[in-house]
Amino acid sequence: MTNSVTIAQLTDVHLGPIAGFLPRYWNVKRALGYANWLLKRRWIYRREVLDRLVADIAAQAPDHIVVTGDLANLGLPREHINALSWLERLGSPERVTVIPGNHDIYSAIGADPGTARWAPFMAPDAAGAAYTEATGPFPFVRMAGPVALVAMNSAVPTPPFVASGRLGDGQLGRLGPLLQRLARDGKFRLVLIHHPPLPGLAKPRRELLDAAALQDVLARHGAELVVHGHNHHNSLTWCATETGTKLPIVGAPSGAQGRRYKDEPLGRYNLYRVGGPPWAVELVGRGLAEPDGPVLELERTLLASSSMA
Q1: Torsion angle, CA of 217/218/222/223, rounded to 10 degrees?
Q2: How many other CB atoms are there within 10 angstroms of residue 68's CB atom?
Q3: Residue 182: C-alpha distances to residues 132, 223, 246 (Å)
Q4: Residue-wise pLDDT tens for the chain (309 aa)?
Q5: I want to staple 45 with a disulfide (CB 3.0 to 4.6 A). Which of 185, 241, 256, 285 is the partner?
Q6: Alpha-carbon distance 254 to 179, whole Å?
Q7: Distance between CA 84 and CA 98 in Å, rounded?
Q8: How far apart are the C-alpha atoms of 75 and 168, rounded to whole Å?
Q9: 3-state secondary structure (DSSP) of residue 17
Q10: From edge to edge, which strands make up the β-sheet containing 246-251?
């Protein structure tokens, strides 16, 4: 694909080890999450796997990298600080965009700034500021050539055994006009969200609670591509729009999984090569086929739809 812009997506990296679990942050949810980390998750999500994928991303030389949430495990201040250091090594704020996941905004942390520490990576750039309203931090827009990265925040604190998300009326109300303006200006609209954006794509206690409302906005105003994480699976579904076109919804697995667990794939990231207009997207999935194997190309798919015609 010639004259293309390449966007790399990492998600659900679950950076360890857990640090800073001080008594003032203890509660039932975190205690259960910490036990889960000690007994299971720390053996599954391995930093050396993530480091190998990051090195491979660098070799692919994408124009921009997006991280669609779950950098942390228990949403602790020290985790947020450590995640900021990792983001700074991943790339400059001009080339890296992050949005929170449910493990990043896990439970109350009082007056601590939390994920606001990531503000350099989580704010509009100069070109995107023209599309971003000042009434709320999300959605914000960043531009990578003709590609408009439309960043949403679906992460909210939840009770024990619940990992659901919510956008809220404010974000949903701002999203529709934003998508319209970008379409009028001929931009490729790439929506970033942590939770799967359509009803039925996640289990009830893990779903986006206002997914039906988001589906209505996407159906009414359209987009060219929506990418998410959360489910730890690679997936491709489609959202019908009122104009009769369909837009692709792509889910990416964890970028740090080093052991087989249930039916989840090993560590992987996605490249989206956007060409046009008329728009076309080539999805390239790269990651591990074997736990100790090399980083390989696992998938190459042309996301052809009438919405890109």
Answers
A1: 130
A2: 29
A3: 11, 9, 18
A4: 457 999 999 999 999 999 999 999 999 999 999 999 999 999 999 999 999 999 999 999 999 999 999 999 999 999 999 999 999 999 999 999 999 999 999 999 999 999 999 999 999 999 999 998 877 799 999 999 999 999 999 999 999 999 999 999 999 999 999 999 999 999 999 999 999 999 999 999 999 999 999 999 999 999 999 999 999 999 999 999 998 889 999 999 999 999 999 999 999 999 999 999 999 999 999 999 999 999 999 999 999 644 444
A5: 256
A6: 28
A7: 10
A8: 21
A9: coil
A10: 140-144, 147-151, 188-192, 225-228, 246-251, 235-240
How far, in Å, CA of 188 to CA of 230, rounded? 24
- As given in the structure block, the two tokens for residue 38 are 């000690």
What is the residue type of 69? G
